[in-house]
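Internal tracking record. Fields below are filled automatically when a chain is submitted to the structure queue. Please do not edit lines marked as system-generated. If the sequence contains nonstandard residues, flag them in the REMARKS field before resubmitting.
Queue: standard
Priority: normal
Entity type: single polypeptide chain
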Amino acid sequence: MLLLDSRLIMKYLACLLLAGTLAGCASAPKAPQRFAWVTGLKAEKAGRYEELHAHPWPVVMKQLKACHVQNYSIFEKEIDGNLYLFSYLEYSGNDFDADMKKMAADPETLRWWKETDPCQRPLPDAAARGKIWSDAKEVFHLK
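SYSTEM-GENERATED OUTPUT FOLLOWS
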């Protein structure tokens, strides 16, 4: 009788372990972080900027994905005769700063930025920090 009880207990424990493992697998994935930025676009360089982004370099796209960037879009808007770019992305990694440093160290990404940066006109706050893009603050999100 004791042998039967220990077998029953082992089966019960195995079922609990399996149930716990499956419950962990069924848990919802971590929602990505959302980031957005704004910068100016030089009117005389807008065509070049659009041309570059119509045919992005595959190696740069691969690097973005390796750095956990997804759902990345750049929008253009003219306001009072000036062109602006709005950039939005979702980040699914665990260390945004480390992944952005990794991207900034990639030679092909640096080469891409040497093509795109001259097209952009940083806003004053970004220019003061030696940056191209100004951080945007999220004020609303519908899930």
